[in-house]
Design goal:
heterodimer; A: Alpha-Beta Plaits; elongated; B: mainly alpha; 17 helices
Chain lengths: ~325, ~425
Amino acid sequence: MIQSRNSHEDPPTGRNAPRDLPVVGQMSRRTAVKGVAAAAGLGALGLATAPMIEKTAQLSVEEFLQQHFKELTDADKQTIFERLEQEAKEKYGATVEIGDFPALEGVRYGYAINLSLCNGNGKCMEACHKENNHDRATEQSYIRVFEMAAGSTNFGLGTTHFDHAVPQKDKYYLPMQCFQCDNPPCVSVCPVEATWQEKDGIVVVDYNWCIGCRYCMAACPYHARRFNWKPAEIPAEEVNPDQGYLSNRIRPVGVVEKCHFCLHRTRVGKLPACLEACPTGARIFGNLLDPNSTVRWVLANKRCFTIKEELGTKPMMFYFFD
Amino acid sequence: MATTMTTGSTQTPLTTLQFWSGYPRFLWRALIAATDGSALFYGWMTTLTALALVGVNAWAKQYALGMGVTGLSDHVSWGLYIANFTFGVGLAAGGVMMVIPAYLYKDRSMHDVVILGELLAVAAIIICTLFIAVDLGRPDRFWHIIPGLGRFNWPMSMLTWDVIVLNGYLLLNLHICGYLLYTRFLGRRPNPVWYLPFVLLSIAWAISIHTVTAFLYQGLGGRPFWNSALLAPRFLTSAFVSGPVFLVLTMLIVRQVAGLRIPVAPMRTLVQIIRVAILVNLLMMVSELFTEFYTGSDHSSHAKYLFFGLHGKTALVPWMWSAVGLNVLAAIMLLHPWATRKPAWFVVAGVCAFVGVWIEKGMGLIVPGFVPSTLHELVEYTPTLAECQITLGIWAAGLMVYTLAVKIAIPILQIPIPEDSGH
């Protein structure tokens, strides 16, 4: 392979032959100039990185070294929850309580929406915004209501931007949020397992483990995921103090979040905030494993459909017209 | 071949200690080569340093203020960084087009310059890693993706595959370049046992890095613009345009600046490769566009947005037509015999092809995947100044790495190697 150079068409010439190693004495002036240049370069690098160093200094060792949620003991969790409560106090001036809320046995959550009743009033979006401590500046919410053209399921003909009286003639209204898919593409793509499906079907995010690569946002076919582009702004008095670690606690900047079916409520027997706020009764939430639940009755007696069924994501949110 | 499989036939074997004893001297020599040069060299490096520092500062601010300083949104959640990452992977993979003729087809003239391709792979992978780093919302949690330390979602997440193949490719090329340069520095013939298996592995590996990077996108069922089996082959084809173009331009520059005599044969081989690859790439584009526009399904709205604009939103239209124009012009110019005879003609054609692929594989691929969104909403994306500064800074840093690597390698490659008595 590396063989004689006899056959080479361009043998090296004397001009390109290697030079001797430099003599230190002759190099002194040049070396000094190089030294000054290197020092100036390092100084400039220090100045350039100053904002990053300043920000990193605010990061506590505990936060930096915190392990994945599934690896934490109950004692670890307690310490972390207290640290996060302290942070909420310092950053938002709010007294909050953060809990674990583990998934219940024998429960698989399902959500059904009666599109004949939904009139696009948007109370669900509003309730989600408040319940889940969303950023006030961007009016963030996990729910978006589409005003759809009657007779069409094409989202391209629908819009989320409408500020006229509802309901409009020739329109129907379709609220969208995370479907807690049984085959969630967002979970498979996460490189660090920062998002996973719990045994009750809810897909959660460990906001302290997410690296913010946003691959899950590219993978979700339903626009269900949000990214914290900026630190959330919430006035102290508006902060919802009843918080879950994997749900509605105030999210750190630079991580992805999503609807979690209000697990801090639903796992203690309450209903999701969006359902409670809905004035039309369009929302039906319950345990799919309970044969007597209303959601099971809906699935058995109404002709339900799911969105983009062909993608094989198996959504746990079912729509029907009554 | 038989005589070269052993280094003992014509040169006395060294003990491990003897072999490594020259290493400090090698490093010192590298340091001298990397910091000594003409006024042109100092000017070039100072410019790159300045650009890199502006980029570092912009990244530091992005880290302190959040990703809100970018033009990205929940609708278009990847942009300039991931676009450049994708293009960079192609550049890294494209370097292999020198390795294949050199080692598989035993093209002797390629042997002395093949290291330029391997060094390009190293620099390009560094560029890619930096683009991923600046795209992370939480770079402070980078360790979560390190196998063993964090939680590595392998084999499910294609991103973990990408981590493996990109880092593997970096290590392979570092080893190959390091070993060949060091033995040459010692004035010895390299022992094929220590590099040939790695070189052969690196050929397959080069294909894998761009395939895996394509799988990253093409595996997403919810993004019809990417969800195409043609994506990976097209990635490779365009990589075999951009990589070799960069290498020929490098050789022309090195020849001009360092006064180095570079044989014409490798350049000619590379131009032949580019000629074929650019035509195949155009053919694949036509095939994709036919499927999109003739079918006319809702899935073609991304291509419509990219080429013609949708509902008055036309941000990418001028870019994409520029890419098409540049690629077609480059293809025509490359077909002309002057492409191998007149350097100036090639430079124009090469730059056109390079920029064309950069647009097409970058902004022209990533952004329309998000526009319209999965729920058919039309939110456009324009990079902010901060994003442009960071992007320029990373390219400057990568070019610094490549310049220094080439600068160190060239004088070492002039050291004669002992004759093989077998010939």
